[in-house]
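Subject: complex prediction, re-run

Hi both,

The earlier run crashed halfway through, so I resubmitted it with identical inputs.
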Amino acid sequence: MIDRLANGFDPFVIPFMVGMIFVLTYCGIGFLVILFQLSREDRKRFLLSLVNPVTAWKNIKDIFLNCLIHVKLWKRNRMLGFMHSSIAFGWFMIIVLGHLEVWLFVPERIRLLYYPIFFNFFVAETETTLQGAVFFFLMDFFLLLILVGIGLAMIKRIRSRFFGMRRTTRASLLDTIGLYSLWAIFPLRLLCESFTAHISGGSFLTVPMNHFFRWFFGNELNYLPTWWAYSIALGIFMLVLPFTRYMHIPAEMLLIPMRNAGLKVRHPRRGFARIQVLSCPGCGVCIDACPMSVRKENLKDCTVYLNRQIRHHNERRITEISEKCLMCGKCSEVCQVGVDGPLMRLKQRELKKYSINQHYRNIRPDSFPVEGTGKVLYFAGCMTHLTPSIRKATMSLLSKAGIEARMMDPDGGLCCGRPMLLAGRQEQARELIRLNTAIIRSSGCDTLLLTCPICYRIFKENYKLDGIRVVHHSVYFNELIQSGLLKVSKDESRTLVYHDPCELGRGCGIYEEPREALLAAGNLVEAHQNHAESICCGGSLGSLSLNYEKRREITLNAFENLTAEQPDAVVTACPLCLNTFSHYADRPVEDLAVVLDKASES
Amino acid sequence: MDFGFTLSPSSAIELDTLDSALYRKLCRIEPGARTCIGCGSCSATCTAAEYSGMSVRKLLLGLQRGKKAEVERMLSNCMLCGKCTMVCPRGINTRRVILTVCRLYDNVEGTL
Amino acid sequence: MIYQGKQKIWSDYQKDIPDNHWFYVRSCIRQSFFPASEAYFVKIVRDLLGKDLYETPHHTTCGGIAYHSDTIPQETAMTIVARQFALMKEAGYKNLVTSCITSFGNYCEILETWREFPELEARIREHLWKACRREFDKPEYVCHASDVVFKLRNEIAERAKFRLIDKETGEPLRIVEHIGCHYSKMFPHKGVGGAEYPCVLSGMAESWGGKVIDYPERRHCCGFGFRQYMVKANRGYSVSNTHKKFESMEPYHPDMIITNCPGCPYFLDRWQYVISEQTGKTYGKDGYGIPVLTYEELAGLVLGVDPWDLGLQIHQVGPEPLLDKMGVPYDPSKKYLGLDEKELRKPGLPNVLKCC
Amino acid sequence: MLLSMKETILVVGGGIAGMETAVQLKALGLTPVIVEKNSSLGGHVAQWNRLFPDMTPASKVLDPYNDALKEVDIYTDTEIASINSLQKEYAAVLSNGKTLRCKAVVFATGFKLFEAEKKEEYGYGIYDRVITNRDLERWFDTRSDERVPAKPAAIGFVHCVGSRDVKAGNSQCSKVCCITAIKQAIEMKELFPDTEIYCFYMDLRLFGKKYEDFYINAQRDYGIHFIRGRVSEVAETIDGRVQVKAEDTLSGKPVKVKLDLLVLMSGIVCDRANNELARSVSLPLDEDGFFRSLDNIAGVTCTDRKGLFLAGTCTGPKTVPETLAEARSAALNVYQYLKAKKK
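This time it finished cleanly. Structure:
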C-alpha cells in the first residue's frame, strides 16, 4: 500500500473536515458547560469516578454494550436491537479499522483526521497481501451490516408497526435532514469504494461492483464526484447533529459515566438533566408505554416530548407536561437510555413558587397518642380510611395470625407527605415526615405496617426510622402465610389477576410477594402487561392537572389490560387503585388483604 | 377627633363590588370548580380540617364571596392527601383547585 | 320608580285626619332641639290658618323614650298616656295630635294593646285613678302633627312666598323625605301612605314644588335606635346606619332632607359632622352638608318666615346653600342673634364640614 | 268505538308499568303478552312495604292486577333472547324457546337499584349496621334482619347514594329517595319513638303532591333531624356501631355521630342488562344508560322506531303514579299506532 497523492490531500475532504471540527468543538464546549453546571461535590465525584479503575471499566463496558450493541433494545425488541446495533457497531468498527489501516500502512498520515475515513481514496494497492485482504473483507462486511441496518431503518420509517411499535415520534425538519444524510452516507461510501476498488483494493462487495461500474462507465474519472458526495453527506450529518436527536450519540457516552458516578437530577434543566435530555434518542418507546397515551390529546405529554420541549425551551409546555404526568414511572422503566422522566418532572415541579405555603407548626405530635403496647404499628393512611374493607381485613388478619397490633391512626391521622413530595413541595413533606416520625417513635413499635403503597414508598425512601421495620402488608402477610402463622385455604375455582400498583412495583420493586401470597388463596393469571410494565390505574396522585373524566379512558384501558385472561376478580394492593378501578369495574376488585381474609380461617 | 366610637364596618357581602378575580382565574384553569354543589363531603373527610378549618367547599364559596383572607388561613394546613378529590360527587379536581389558589393567591395574573 | 304604583299604594293607606279642634301634645326633646318648629306649627295652624289647637301646660312626657330604652315597663307608660288622655277629656277634645313620632307610636301601640286586651285597659284606668284620681276617654283620632300639616299642605301652598324650586335653574329641589320609624312601621294603616312609601312628607314636598327622590336605603332608620345611641358602646352602629343612608342618597345630590321625627333630624344633622370628622367626607356641594329640616321649619321657610326665627342656626349643617337655592333672603350677621337681638354664643367650627 | 283487532302486543317486563300497560291494552281490545325475567310479577314495588306519601301498602297497588291480568298470557322466569323486526311486525324469541309474533313491543324493563357496595366508604356489606332502603322495606315486611338492632338509639339516613354522583357513574337525581327517606324515617320513628333520627342530604327535592307536607310532619310531629351535608366516611366503632362523618354545611362545622343503624338511600340507575335488547332492535340509549324517548315532553313513551314503545322507569327515575300514567299513555300510543296502520 502506498500513498497515491504526494500531498495526501484533496479538496473534497473539506466538507467532512468542517463538520468534524464543528462537532468536536461543539461537544467539547458543551461537555465543559455541563461539567461546570454540576454542583461542586457532583463534579468531584464524577471526575474521581473517571480515574477509579472499577467505574472506569464499568463505563467502558456499559458504553460498549448500550451505545454500540444496544443490549437493552435487543432484550426489548430484536428487530430494533439489530437495526440499531448494526448501524452503531458497524460504523464504529469501520472507523476503528480505518485507523488501523492508516496506522499499519501509512503511519506518517495518522495525524490527519480525514485519512482513516477516505483511506481508499488516498492509497493505491501495490500487491495483494493477506493482511490487506482481511482488512478489505472486514470493511466490506461491516459496510454491508450497516447497509442492512439502514434498510431496516427505512422500512421502520414507512411501517413502524412492522417493528411492533404502535406510535413513534414525528421528526422535526433538522431531524429529517440528519436522518437522510445519515442514510446517504453508507450507500455513498459503497459507491466510492467500489469506484476505487481496482486501485486501492476491495473485497466481496466492492470488487464486483467495481467491475460492473468499469464495464458500465468505462473510464474511471467519474469517481471523484461520489467521493465529494460522500464527504458532503458526512459533513451535513455532523453539522446538524448537535441540533437533532442524533446528539444522543455523543451525549449518551457522557451520560453513562455520569450515571455510573452516581449523579442524580438536581435541577430540571442544568447539569445531569441536560445530558439526560440530550441523550434522548427520541425513539418514542415511552409513547406506547405512557398510560395517558390512550387519549390522543395526551400523546405529546410523554417523556420524549418533555425532552424535546426542554431542548426548545418551551416553558409553557414544559410546565404543562410536568404537571400532567401520573408519575407512574413506566417511561423510565422502558427507556433504553435510562432517562428518568418522572424525576425530571418532579424537579420541574419543585421550581414552582407559591404565595400560600402550607406549614404544620400548629399540629403537635402528642395530639395523636398511640394506645397499647403491640410491637406492630399499623398506619392505614388517608386513602385506606375511604376503603374500610382493607382496614377491616388487615386488622382481622393480624388477629387471626395472633399478632398484637395497634392502629396509628384509628380516627384519621396525618398525611404521610408523599402527595406533597409529588407536588414538588419538599418543605411541607419534610415537616409531615418530622411529625409522623415523632408519633411513630413515641409508640415504641418495632414494625410499621402499611396498606398503602403511596405511604409505603415515602416511609421507605424518606423517613429515618432505623430500628423500625417498614413493611407493606402484601410482604408482611406473605411472610405470615409462608411461616404458617396464617392459615389460608386455596379456592381452586377462583382465578385472580394481580395489578402491580406503580408505587409498590416500579416504585419499591415489590412484585413477587403479593403474587406468592395470592397463590395461597386462589389461581393466579397474569395481566397482558404486568410486573414492571403494569399500567397505572389512572387514579394516581402524581398528576396535578388531570381531572376525573380525563382519567376515565386510562382506567378503562388499564382494567382491560388486567382482565385479558378473564379472571374472576382483580386484586390490587393499593387503596387508590382499588377505589379507581371499582368506579368502572365489571367484576369484583378487591384488596389483597380482603382476599386473604376471606380465604383464611381464624 | 376622637368621639369614643367609630363607624363599624358592614358585614354585608356586596356582590357587585367584591373582588372575585381569583375565582374567575381559578375557573378558567379548573372549570370543574364551578360545579360544586356544596355537599360538604370534602370538608368532612379532610385530614387537615380540624387544625385549620380547611374545606374546599368553603374555599370555593369564600372566593366567590370575596373572602380572600379566610381562604388563606384555611389552606395553611392542607396536606394535599387527595381524600377530598376521592369523595367529591362532582369529580372536581380539588387538589388542582388548592394548588392553583396557593399559586395565584398574591398574583392573580400570574401564569401556571 | 313607577309613580302610579306609589299612588295606588297611597290610595290603600288613606287616613282620615280631622280638620279642626286638636289637642296638641309636645315632644320632650324637640322643644330643646328645635324649639322653633313646634312654635311655628302652632303659629301656622292657629294664627295663619285660624284653626282650633289646644295645648295644656300639665302635659308631661308620654314615657315613650323611657319605654323604648327599656327603663320603664309598658304599664307605666300606659298610665302616663292614660293621664294625657284624661287631660284631653278634661279639656273637652277628642282629636289627639302629637308632635313626637315616638309618642305617636307609643299612643297607637297602647291603644292597640288595649283593643286586644281590654282587661289591661281596665287595670290602667284603676292605676290612673289610684295615682291621681283622674278618668280618661280614648281619643277618637290619634294623628301626628305632620299629618295635620299634610292635610293643610295645599292651604299652605296657596300662601307660599317661596317654592321648593332652584331659582337659578328653575328645577324643583331634590328632596329626601325621612319618616320616623314609629310613624308607620308599627302600624302601616296609621300613617299616611303606609310604611313602604309613606307620602306624608313627600306630599308636602311635592305640593310645595319640590321633587322627592327615592334612594335604595330610603326605608332605613336614621340610626338613633334608642339603645344604639344611648349606650355609648353601641354608637358605632348608630353612626354606621346613618352613614349607610348618606352613602346611598349621595348619588342623587339631594338639596335637603325633610323629617317628621324628633330623633331623625337631630341625628341626620349631627352625624353628618361626626362622619365628616371620621371619614373626611361631606355629602353636600363643596364641603357643605345636606341641610336637614323638620317639616315645620320647611313650612315656615315656604311661608317666608325668617330662617333665623325658625332656629335654622341651631342646626349643625348650615342651611345657607338651601336658602340661596330657594332665594330666601337672610342676613348672615344676624345668624347668631337671639330673638331679642342679643348675641348668642357663636359655636366653634368643625374641621371638615363647612357650616357657613 | 273499538277497532276489533286481536293483534298481539309484547310487553317486556312485569313491573307495575308492564302490568298496567297490559291491562289497558286488554281494555282496548288488544292481546298483550307479558314477559317477566323474575319468577313473579310486581317488580320493585313488590319488594316495597308501603308507599309515600300516604303510607299506602304496596299490596293495595299490586293486588288488583291479579284479577285484571287473568286473561293475559304471562311468561315469568323468561327473558327475551332476541327481537327481530319483520315486514309489518316483530318476532321475539323467548328464552323458553317460544317465538312470539307481535305487532308492537312495549318496553317496561324498569330500573336497577344502585349497588350500595360500590360506595365503599359507606361500608355496605362491610359493617354490621349498614343497610339499604330496600333492605329496610324488606325488614318492614319480615321484621327479620340481624343488622337492624332491637332498640336503636340513633338511626341515620344517607340520601343520594349513587345518585348525583359522577364517581358512581350516575349524575342524575333519582327523584324518589328524598321522600322515601322521609317516609322510612317516619316509619322508624313510629316504631322507635325514643330513637334519634338523622337525615343527611345534599338538597331536599320534595316536588310531588303532599311531599312537602310529609316533610313538615317529619320535622314537626316526628322531630326528625335534617342535616345538610353529604356523608363522606363511615367507620365502625369499638362497640360495633357505626360512626358517620359529614359536614353540617349550614353551620360550616364537621359533624360526627354514632349510629345503631345507617340506611343508604340507593338510587335509581339504568339496568345495563337491557343494553343488548336495545341494540337488537336498534333503540338508542341516553348517556345515562336509560332508553331514549322520542322526546322528553310529548313523546316520552314513544321511540323513533315503528311499533316500539316505552313505559315507566326504563326511561329514567319515576314515581309510582308517574309510571302508571306512562303505562296508560303507552297503551294508547300502541292503539293509535295500530289504528293508523289499519287505515
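Chain A touches chain D at residues 385-389, 392, 411, 548-549, 578-579, 582-584 (CB under 8 Å).

- K.
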